[in-house]
């Protein structure tokens, strides 16, 4: 159907049918068609507005219009419509409200006012729609509601009501009062047109036609297999199926099997939910244990690292002390062995000379005299420099100041040796020392020889 088609509003429709009686089936049928077309194009607000005059209670009429002395109670136009038209109008009304609730809060506020959408949604979820249908369309008599309308009412509550207790109560009331005769014959005669008065007096029986039987079976299926299981009424549902007079044995067996399947599926869902929750709990516990283990491992690694750093620091401190003490020892050892070796050399020489003839001792002393004093001095100085460099290298780690003092000493020695007068003085002092040493050695040789 094209979207740009213009439909008359409820006001224009009412004005066009103003010549028809208020309870005219033709007027109600036109309104129903108009509302259906608007609903199919998803114009929900306009469809509801068009349909509302049919399901709204009219003003009281005086008794003179019917030729009676008593006034007629206020009724909605739908209450006097035919059964088929009444079922169509109420089913369309229920369907429109269901679509309005399905819009959701955001879209519902956009198409309707926020207050209006909340009122309609509450009317569906709280079960107020059931009271509206029974009170306006069926004069408050629960058992006279058409089975198709009851089925749609129970379905919309099953879809949107958070609790199915009200739905169960409504269906129980309907099933217990369905088919009971309505004894208000005077009301039927008064409210019915004269031509159809005979048909109006006839009471409704529960299963007088195949259509009513099929509708009753649908309601029983919805009640026992959907509403009661939602309320955890499993035993009550089985008992209701077994005691039902509408269901034959074959349908009872089918209903019981379906109910058992639903119960088993529900138990499996509960077990799956419990298993999933147990797995989640185990996973959470595992993650907590892993986090605790990682935390402990990190703490142990940190402690080990701190301990290793402490040990390394202690080793470094001990090494510095050892190097400092070894430097002093090496200085003593490097200074004394040279003197000891020098002192031992004449003794060994005297011992050897004591066992050899004088000629051999003269031959041994002869190369010493021929040696160049400068070369000996240079060799001693080189040894001194090597020992000094080694000592400086060992003392660098222990104390930078020692390295600086050694460097200054070396610079001072080099600068001193760079002056000719100092070199000559050192040479004279060294030569004099060697002369004294040779004299001492010679005296020792002579004494040993004698």
Automatic annotation (TrEMBL):
Residues 269-299 have a biased composition (Basic and acidic residues). It comes from Polytolypa hystricis (strain UAMH7299). Keywords: Membrane, Transmembrane, Transmembrane helix. This is Peroxin 26. The lineage of its organism: Eukaryota, Fungi, Dikarya, Ascomycota, Pezizomycotina. Residues 340-361 have a biased composition (Polar residues). The chain crosses the membrane at residues 402-418. Residues 1-24, 269-372 are annotated as: Disordered. Residues 8-24, 300-310 have a biased composition (Low complexity).
